[in-house]
Every structure is written in structure tokens, then in C-alpha cells.
Specification:
75% helix, mainly alpha, elongated, 153 residues, 9 helices
Length: 153
């Protein structure tokens, strides 16, 4: 029986790490990603994937750190900024989460899901309850069929 050679190229190793990640083998995927990051510490895709993985492990401090590093390299990385906002929210750092969402909304003002997320984060931070309700009302005025806004209102 012939042995299969282990993957050798960066792309092969990244694909293998991604497969491990998708299969839920988070420790093995983290080891693979960290090995790749050792070679390419500022690779946006790796920083993003490692940030997601850390969030899945509920290690939000590490997740925030990875997304921060990603945005330092690629400040307009939409998914990275949204993931950062969500990790900040999970860490109950609501004001910082809202700042990230505001940046995204400035770039995509018509994105209803971003505006919904902004209202939701505001609702979680009880000192901004009235602002969140107003945001849901505004969303419903503009998009009366947005079911999540009705449910959260």
C-alpha cells in the first residue's frame, strides 16, 4: 500500500487546517493555524480564522486580539470587524462593540443586519435601552417585514 505524502504547500496546509476546523476538531485546527501563523504572522485569512476559532472556544480575549491584529493589517476587512464586534459583545464590552458596528454601518448604511445588530447590542447594555428600542422602531419603519426586529422589539 502506497503512503500518501503529507501536504507540503501553504495552501495544502491551510486547506487541511480549515477541514479540521469545519469538522469541529478545534485543538488540531488551532495547532495547524498557529503553525501557519508562525510563518505568516500578518496573514489576514489566518488571523480571521484563528479569531473565529478562539471565539468558538469561548476564548474571547484571544479572539479579540486576533481580530485586532487582522484589522491592523487590513483595516477594511468587513468580516473581521463584524467578528470583532461580536467578540466584544460576548465579552460584555458593549461600547467597544457598538464602535465597531458604527464603523461598519458608516461603510454600509443600508445593511439592515448591521443596524439590527447595533440595536441588539444597545439593548444588552441596559443603560442604552431606549436607544435600542428606537433603533428597532426605525428598522421596522423602513423594513416592516424584518422579523428579528419585531421579535426583539
Amino acid at each position: 500500500m502506497a503512503k500518501i505524502a503529507p501536504p507540503k504547500t501553504y495552501e495544502d496546509l491551510l486547506r487541511r487546517a480549515g477541514t479540521l476546523h469545519m469538522e469541529g476538531k478545534l485543538e488540531a485546527a488551532a495547532t495547524a493555524y498557529l503553525g501557519l501563523l508562525a510563518e505568516r504572522p500578518e496573514e489576514p485569512q489566518l488571523l480571521y480564522l484563528m479569531g473565529l476559532l478562539e471565539g468558538q472556544r469561548a476564548n474571547f480575549a484571544a479572539s479579540i486580539e486576533r481580530f485586532g491584529a487582522l484589522l491592523a493589517v487590513e483595516p477594511t476587512h468587513f468580516e473581521g470587524r463584524l467578528a470583532l464586534a461580536r467578540a466584544l459583545r460576548a465579552s460584555e464590552r458593549h461600547e467597544e462593540s457598538l464602535e465597531q458596528l458604527a464603523t461598519l454601518i458608516a461603510a454600509q448604511p443600508e445593511n439592515i443586519e448591521l443596524r439590527f445588530e447595533q440595536a441588539t447590542v444597545g439593548l444588552l447594555d441596559r443603560s442604552r435601552f431606549a436607544e435600542a428600542v428606537a433603533a428597532y422602531d426605525e428598522l421596522l419603519e423602513q423594513h416592516p417585514r424584518h422579523a428579528d426586529s419585531w421579535l426583539h422589539r
